[in-house]
Amino acid sequence: MGIENVKDLGLEELAKRSLHNDPVAQRLIYERLAGKMLAVCKRYVGNGEAAKDVMHDGFIVLFEKMGSYAGSGSFEGWARKIFVNMALMHLRKSDALRYSEPVDSLRGLPALQSSELDKLSSHDLLTCIALMPAGFRAVFNLYAIEGYTHEEIGNMLRINESTSRSQYVRAREWLQKKLQNYITE
Length: 185
Prior knowledge:
- There is one protein chain.
- By secondary structure, the chain is an all-alpha fold.
- It has two domains: about 5-95, Rna Polymerase Sigma Factor, Chain: A; about 105-185, Orthogonal Bundle (Arc Repressor Mutant, subunit A).
- It is built from ten helices and no strands.
- It has helices at about 5, 10-20, 25-45, 50-65, 75-95, 115, 120-130, 135-145, 150-155, 160-185.
- Helix 3 packs across helix 4, helix 7 (about 120-130) packs across helix 10 (about 160-185) and helix 9 packs across helix 10 (about 160-185).
- It is globular.
- About 30% of the residues are buried.
């Protein structure tokens, strides 16, 4: 199969070809997923350069573990889990999962009105999420965006389920405070 035909293949078929160390298939997988997976890494890690390092490490792991992709379900979803895990591993190694925001400073915030929220773009919201302390950001992303349960988050981050729940509440309060400041600026 020539390179022209390979470019037309879906990710699942490229994954099969990648199992045989097909460099063209691997390059196409990288090109198709790099932007999305960098966004995932940035959402967890925050820092642009660190996120790029995590993304590159994630692709190494992705290609090493390609044989474990069963072919059922979305290849992109399977790959996304690898990148989330790589970002969490980076946060654990850098000890960024220590939660530093005092809870008392977050209590008693007025609720944001929907008319105020309508003023925010998705970019504004993602910008505020990126400013969260790393521990808050990890739990918030895993629960609110990725859809993991607090039990699953606890296992992933090696924390208690109740810690995950409390950190999510704190993350929401922190985000509410930042959004309040963002709207009034």
